[in-house]
Amino acid sequence: RPRVLSGIQPTADSFHLGNYLGAVRQWVALQDTHDAFYMVVDLHALTVNPSAAELTRRTRIAAAQLFACGLDPERSAVFVQSHVREHAELAWILICQTGMGEAGRMTQFKDKSAKVGEGSASVGLFTYPILQAADILLYQADQVPVGADQKQHLELSRDLAQRFNHRFGPTFTVPSPYILKEVEKITDLQDPTAKMSKSSSSPQGILDVLEQPGPLRKKVMRAVTDTGSEVVADEENKPGITNLLRIQSAITGTPVPELEARYAGQGYGTFKKDVAEVVVETFAPIRERTEKLLGDEAELDRMLAVGAAKARAVAVETMAHVRENIGFLPTP
Ligand code: ATP
Ligand code: MG
């Protein structure tokens, strides 16, 4: 079975629809066909400087949501990144294999650092993609299911794997991206050309998995739509309607042309109401399961301990090869 690995940041009190459709829903499906490793990347979340209480709370909520969405602690390794020390160790080694210019080309850093002011962004935000490469290479992942926003980072992971293998001998599997075209980028409801994002979308622009039905409906009804009244997909001229069509299609499995035919001549109102309903129906059971899991912290921690043990076994083995190949003395 090919191995997949992916991660999600505990940077908010809920996942959003883009995380769900672009990532977590696929992770669940891949458990049937792949050897799967999924993690809550708390080391990555440090790049935006959360308080200790925030980080703790969000890491638990993120883990609970992963299980609530259908990740199975028996079949997959579901764990918290900081429970496996090797991530930080390999990241340093890869940082030393990465050129400043190469790292400086990463567009996510440019976007995220522009928001806080260039000089104020942490060095961690700059080296983020290299830690991500370490995450992936540590597990010898064949495929990495992610949204389109991670394409460039994955390219860097591939380059680093190839460079290391070339310099120090075969050590890492070179990973391929696994990106589903239909849901590679769910956009912000208020700014339908920008991606929906935990840390940069406005509350009105984001559909949170753990949100109540009332606010969810309101947000969909108030989503920025485009001039005209035809429900048709048109990325250029109708990014708002196109995003909503994609959402409904992804959730219901109905192809976009079929939806266009169904809503012909009906205007935006009816369409939006239906989109709101499928979102609410999808999120409600996940929210309920998440709340239940969060009510039993000991059980949640036990599930994460199972995942950490599975992850550690693989990570330790990879690091033993890395250490030997790079020329470190055997650990006494
Ligand atoms: P942040 O704003 O803190 O970076 P995020 O919303 O980008 O949060 P991440 O935790 O960085 O979420 O990413 C988790 C996964 O969700 C990644 O695989 C990413 O590609 C995917 N993803 C994030 N946003 C979207 C989106 N709008 N559409 C599709 N996939 C997305
Ligand atoms: Mg992100």
Automatic annotation (TrEMBL):
Keyword set, alphabetical order:
Aminoacyl-tRNA synthetase, ATP-binding, Cytoplasm, Ligase, Nucleotide-binding, Protein biosynthesis
Record keywords: Protein biosynthesis included? yes
One family from Pfam that matches here is: tRNA-synt_1b
Its Enzyme Commission number(s) read 6.1.1.2
For the motif 'KMSKS' region, what are the positions? 195-199
Q: NCBIfam families, alphabetically?
A: trpS
- Relate the protein's function as given in its record: Catalyzes the attachment of tryptophan to tRNA(Trp).
The record's note on quaternary structure and interaction partners says: Homodimer.
Descriptive protein name: Tryptophan--tRNA ligase
**Species per Swiss-Prot/TrEMBL record:** Acrocarpospora macrocephala
Gene label = trpS
